[in-house]
Amino acid sequence: VLLEPFVHQVGGHMSMMKYDEHTVCKPLVSQELSFYESLPLAMRQFTPQYKGVVSVHLKKDSLGNLTLIASPGLQTESCGRLDNAIGDSSVTIWHKRKWAASTGTGSEHTLVKWSHTQLTKTFKDSCPGKMLLRTDLQYRTDSLLEDANRNQPERNSYNPWGLHCHRQHLNRMSSKHNENKLHQFLLLENVVSKYNYPCILDLKMGTRQHGDDASEEKKARQIKKCEQSTSASLGVRVCGMQVYQADTGHFLCKDKYYGRKLSPEGFRQTLRQFLCNGNHLRMDLLEPIILRLKALLSVIRKQSSYRFYSSSLLIIYDGQEHKENTAALDNHLHFQKTNCTTSHGTNHARVDVRMIDFAHTTFKGSKCNHTTYDGPDHGYIFGLENLIKILQNISE
């Protein structure tokens, strides 16, 4: 399987790759694997479904372009046989992207073949040096997105953060380049696959971010980041965001550097912005998001010994509004009666809340356990409670 960059990655530093329409994969960390393998039943509805482990190797073509090839169930000795089977497609990092056209019908574009060198060059040209992805970057269509005939496709655009992570990841892997070396990747459910225009808020949860295994230097760095951001005051900070703007047909993107600078008031405004589609505030989403967060809160309160250091919480909804939602805006009372159904109600398909990133999660009985803690994760609970309060204020 040729791995493509996952275009909806809004945060994190590990490169998420698209394995198939419903599955993403990321480099395996044994502590995260241990978490997924012993996941408490009650938490399963709030985490991506774990689908197993896959072997990945790096392939270089004659032009020096790098690609990642996943080989389900592959052992090292059969690596050689892959070369012929893969053929030309391994030259491309992004072979094909399907995009729903603005009409809502699926139309397919074959984009230009993106080589690693092109990708790097384009980033360097468009963002000199360290300025790469700071603060207020808007999603935009890059000159890079041309089809084979040099035509610009319709103005769809990609979240630059995922490409930034992908480029860094390829650089790291290629510096130790060895075609026969197999890297293990975790296969996880793609939690945004059912949305046409996935609006995603990535929140770093808790008042402490460093894992038990962090070096003194890293620990000091993480403590400082928490103190200087809303992690200390609210127990939650913005780590990344993309929100579809119906008025322009673009996604608005924010990255972790933007999130770190926010004051508590700025955090509230950003939460509001996440629910605004460029025309109006999506009032219809507030109640289902709050209900889902409350359900998660009651599950987390019951998990003794778990510490979710450095993990994130995703809030997701579809930027494409359904006709019945706009009617609900006119009649808020009616909305409260009909849309506060139990979590099995249809309205809950429109929002999702998922915990991700468990590389530093520790719990009693974990294979990589460093410290055993008692009781629930109070830092995480503090963040969830504040998040619910802020959303309730917006709703009121």
Automatic annotation (TrEMBL):
Transmembrane region(s): none
Enzyme class: transferase
Family in the record: Belongs to the inositol phosphokinase (IPK) family.
Pfam families: IPK
Lineage, broadest ranks: Eukaryota, Metazoa, Chordata, Craniata, Vertebrata
InterPro entries assigned to the protein according to its UniProt record, in alphabetical order: IPK, IPK_sf
Keyword ATP-binding: yes
Molecular function terms from GO: ATP binding; inositol hexakisphosphate kinase activity
Name of the protein in its database record: Kinase
PANTHER family: INOSITOL HEXAKISPHOSPHATE KINASE 3, INOSITOL POLYPHOSPHATE KINASE
Entry's Gene Ontology cellular component terms: cytoplasm; nucleus
Keywords in alphabetical order: ATP-binding, Kinase, Nucleotide-binding, Transferase
UniProt-listed Enzyme Commission number(s): 2.7.-.-
BP-aspect Gene Ontology terms: inositol phosphate biosynthetic process; phosphatidylinositol phosphate biosynthetic process
Keyword Glycoprotein among UniProt keywords: no
Gene3D superfamilies xrefs: Inositol polyphosphate kinase (3.30.470.160)
